Amino acid sequence: MPRFRKLSSACIALGAASLMVTTSVPLAYGHGYTSAPTSRAKFCQQGTVTNCGAIQWEPQSVEGPKGFPSGGPADGRLCSAGISHFAQLDDPRNGTWPTTSVQSGQSYTFRWQLTAPHRTTNFKYYITKQGWNPSAPLTRSALELAPFLTVNLNGAQPPTQSSHVGTMPSRTGRHLILAVWTIHDTANAFYQCSDVRFG
Q1: What is the pLDDT of residue 7?
Q2: In angstroms, rounded to a whole number, what is the distance separating the alpha carbons of residues 21 and 72?
Q3: Considering the domain boundaries, does residue 78 fall inside one?
Q4: In the 8-state DSSP scheme, what is residue 186?
Q5: 94 in any annotated domain
Q6: First CA to last CA across the chain, in angstroms?
Q7: Tally of helices (H runs) and strands (E runs) in the chain
């Protein structure tokens, strides 16, 4: 009987160790991504874009410090929220990311899929300036730092499928929209970059 107990204890310990190893793999427990316009993170998760690294398993986890544009992630790391294992999102890929077609001045419904809603301060949407360089990583100097759409929630919790109606700015050609979801009761925000093309 003592030998059986020792064997059982060893099996339990081995099982616990296996569980620890398997749960160290990235898990989809996170928070939210934009589905309209489709974000780089979502394109990676869909497999539309390959060689994306870890973001393909967790497009909802692009979380970094809040306070953009005076704070937040560093320039050149805005699309990854400064997370090194999501750095593929910062790579402009020579301006070849898939785009969503939009029109200047159109009414547009921006959509987030929230896998774990949080109390929210606001959602803000920023866009690149006319003449920005789509072959370079995104920086503050490439963006209009006044958001073209702000949706204030003042601490309320949004639904898991959140929609925000706004007006697309006047632009031509390829641009990038940075969506920032600022959490009310933590020090963080979620960042999503979406490539768009104005017709």
Answers
A1: 40
A2: 32
A3: yes
A4: S
A5: yes
A6: 77
A7: 2, 9
Instruction: Tell me the torsion sign for CA atoms 182, 63, 161, 171.
Output: positive
Enclosing domain of residue 178: 28-198
- Are 106 and 92 in contact by the 8 Å Cβ rule? The answer is no
Task: Indicate which CATH number applies to the domain containing 95.
Answer: 2.70.50.50
Per-position DSSP letters for 81-147, written without gaps between them:
TT-GGGGGGG--GGGTS--EEE-TT-EEEEEEEESS---EEEEEEEEBPTT--TTS---GGGB-SS-
The amino acid at 87: A
- Residue 17 covered by a domain: no
Strand partners, 164: 110
What integer is the mean pLDDT of 165-192?
Answer: 97
Q: pLDDT, tens digit, for every residue of 124-177?
A: 999 999 999 999 999 999 999 999 999 999 999 999 999 999 999 999 999 999
What pLDDT, in 10s, does the model give residues 63-118? 999 999 999 999 999 999 999 999 999 999 999 999 999 999 999 999 999 998 89
| CB-CB contact of 166 with 110 (8 Å) | yes
Provide the domain count of the chain: 1
Residue 4 counted as domain residue? no
Do the Cβ atoms of 53 and 85 come closer than 8 Å? yes
pTM: 0.85
